[in-house]
Amino acid sequence: MKLNIHAINFEMADKLNAYIEKKTKRLEKQLPENAELEIRMTVIKKETALNKETQVRIHGVGQELFAEKVCDTFEQGLDEALAALDRPLEKLKDKK
Questions:
Q1: Fewer Cβ in 10 A, N or C end of the chain?
Q2: What is the DSSP letter of 35?
Q3: Which domains does the chain have, with CATH numbers?
Q4: For residues 77 and 69, is the Cβ–Cβ distance under 8 A?
Q5: Which of 31, 29, 30, 13 is nearest to 75 (CA)?
Q6: Which pLDDT tens digit goes with each residue over 32-63?
């Protein structure tokens, strides 16, 4: 599995990068080796609450899967986006 992380409008800390890698490790068992996981994190408006947008896109599993969440933290957004992709991934797994 190939992992691409994009940080837009902010500098990503090593702690956030480690958190992303830890959370996406479990997907390696569910996804084929040629799959690509793209995570795009954006700060929308710095002075407001709920200003962190997290998009997760999975390519190479027969169709493109996508989830997008806006939360107070990137960690929460990533958790919610990955949870939203659990069901479509299970359906794809059951088809095969």
A1: C
A2: -
A3: 2-95 (3.30.160.100)
A4: yes
A5: 13
A6: 888 999 999 999 877 777 889 999 999 987 88
Residue whose C-alpha is closest to residue 31's, from 1, 63, 4, 68: 1
- The tokens describing 41, both together, are 């994190």
Q: Are 37 and 1 in contact (CB under 8 A)?
A: yes
- The chain-wide mean pLDDT, for the chain, equals 90
**Token pair 């960690």: residue:** 75
Q: In 3D, which of 11, 78, 86, 72 has the Cα closest to residue 39?
A: 78
Distances in whole angstroms, Cα of residue 88 to Cα of each of 17, 22, 30: 25, 21, 11
pTM score: 0.88
